[in-house]
Amino acid sequence: MKQYRRLLRKLGIFKTLIILTTASILLSVAITCLIHLAIARKLPDSLGIGIAIVAPLVIVPLFSYLSLNLLFQLDLAEEKLHRLSLEDDLTGASNRRHFMELAEIELQRYRRYRNPFSIAFLDIDDFKQINDRYGHLAGDLVLCEMTNMCLQNIRESDIFARYAGDEFVILMPNTTRQQAVECLERIRGCLLEKTVQYHQRPIHFTLSMGVISTNGKDTSLESLLNLVDSALYSAKKKGKNRLMLA
After folding, report:
1. Going by fewer Cβ within 10 Å, which terminus of the chain is more open, N or C?
2. HEC secondary structure over 168-217
3. How far apart, in whole angstroms, are the C-alpha atoms of residue 10 and residue 16?
4. In which order are the strands placed within the sheet that holds 167-173?
5. Backbone phi, then psi, for 169, in 5-degree steps?
6. pTM (2 decimals)?
7. Is 177's pLDDT higher than 90?
């Protein structure tokens, strides 16, 4: 069924409609002709021929369109549900579950090929104070603006996810520690120049970050996350608005 839907989506609704309608008309004409021949003695020839030709031309295209439209709507709804299951509904970033799945895959790839990767935790400094001072809608705006800024400064191959509350995580495949540091410092620098406007009130905010990179030794994802979380905690403890290495 999924392969059938993919084929229909590739062709498009109108091409598929033409193909389906043509096949349906030919089949309908054949069936109607057989019915007409079976009751030919009871109907005038002209009326029987008219029914055989007009009925399929009217009914089949309408039925085909309604059927295909329903199928496409179901397909789009399924795709939307799948996308929502992978994304954070507020920011549009990947959600925690999606990140964990991809991080585990990246760890397996590292164990097999020894391609380095890095994981970074990012936390908005004094986010509770932003909510208390400006309101939760302003806090939501800050989360979205921070997400957009980060997405603009990472690669398409990187995974940016909302981990919990105002804490975010970046999975950076094929990235050494130095490359990760350069990327994160670029993000931190951009946010220092960023001002979020909320009802003509400027909101400034900074990030504390921790980062860890694979070091050639086998490890678990849980261990990596614990270490990078400790690095983030150190950044908070040492004054915030800084990056600490695990």
Report:
1. N
2. EEEEEECCCHHHHHHHHHHHHHHHHCCCEEECCEEECCCEEEEEEECCCC
3. 9
4. 159-164, 167-173, 117-124, 207-213, 243-245
5. -140, 145
6. 0.70
7. yes
Q: Assess whether pLDDT exceeds 80 at residue 105.
A: yes
Angle between helices 2-11 and 45-86 (to 10 degrees): 110
**Tally of residues, the chain:** 246
Provide the CB-side half-sphere exposure for 118 (13 A, CA): 24
Which of 51-55, 71-75, 93-97 bottoms out in mean pLDDT, i.e. has the lowest? 51-55
Tell me the β-bridge partners of 117: 173
Per-residue pLDDT at 86 = 79
**DSSP letters spanning the chain:** -HHHHHHHHHH-HHHHHHHHHHHHHHHHHHHHHHHHHHTTTTS-HHHHHHHHHHHHHHHHHHHHHHHHHHHHHHHHHHHHHHHHHHB-TTT-SB-HHHHHHHHHHHHHHHHHH---EEEEEEEETTHHHHHHHH-HHHHHHHHHHHHHHHHHTS-TTSEEEEEETTEEEEEEET--HHHHHHHHHHHHHHHHT--EEETTEEE---EEEEEEE--SS---HHHHHHHHHHHHHHHHHTTSS-EEE-
Structure tokens at 138: 């302003």
Query: What are 144's two structure tokens?
Result: 């979205």
Phi, psi of 167 (to 5 degrees): -105, 130
Tokens of 129: 């104070």
